[in-house]
Amino acid sequence: MITTKAQIKTHDDYAVVVPVIVPDLGEVKAFAAKLHAKKKAWKGEAFGWPAEYNPERAKRPLASKMNFTPADFCIGESGIWFFSLMWENGSKIEPVEFLDDRNILTKVTRRKNGAKIYRENTVQKNGEKWKA
Questions:
Q1: Is residue 5 packed enough to be buried (19+ CB in 10 Å), middle (13-18) or exposed (0-12)?
Q2: Model-level pTM?
Q3: SS3 for 78?
Q4: For the stretch 80-112, what's the b/e string if a residue is b when 16 or more beta carbons lie within 10 angstroms of its beta carbon?
Q5: CA–CA distance, 64 with 119 (Å, rounded to integer)
Q6: Structural element, H or E, at residue 30
Q7: Tell me: the pLDDT tens digits for 43-98?
Q8: Is 96:81 a contact under the CB 8 Å cutoff?
Q9: How far apart are CA 2 and CA 12, in angstroms?
Q10: In the chain, where are the structural domains located?
């Protein structure tokens, strides 16, 4: 986990910058894989964020061409930091990932050797560019 900052829009013309703890995605994926292996619905808190897992269901989703409702896992809060996995190609196929970290000001990426790289986002604040 890393402590970083998130920019949260509270009004049309104002955004506040707050500290947040963002979990390592590798740890999050491992946690989701354990839930997926059990194939039981779960809802709670993980890594300090609200999270939930829903197993695959035979029932078709409403207004969808899919033949089943895929298993899914999500963690975080939309607009701050959010990550989800959806096994839309079946439970035995790798899940599709979605990460919403557009409001996180310091991004963490990994090189192929596993080393972490911290990159600052440049954001607009009151018409001026600044780094968090």
A1: middle
A2: 0.76
A3: coil
A4: bbbbbbebeeeeeeebeeeeebebbbbeeeeee
A5: 39
A6: helix 25-38
A7: 999 999 999 999 999 888 888 888 899 999 999 999 899 999 999 998 999 999 99
A8: no
A9: 29
A10: 2-131
pLDDT of residue 131: 46
Tokens for 13, please give them.
Answer: 């013309």
Q: Which two tokens stand for residue 126?
A: 């009151």
Tokens of 15: 């955004």
31, two tokens: 């946690």
SS3 33: helix
For residue 112, give every residue at least 6 positions away whose Cβ sits within 8 Å of its Cβ, in sequence order, or none. Answer: none
How far apart, in whole angstroms, are the C-alpha atoms of residue 125 and residue 100? 20
pLDDT tens profile 60-74: 888 888 889 999 999
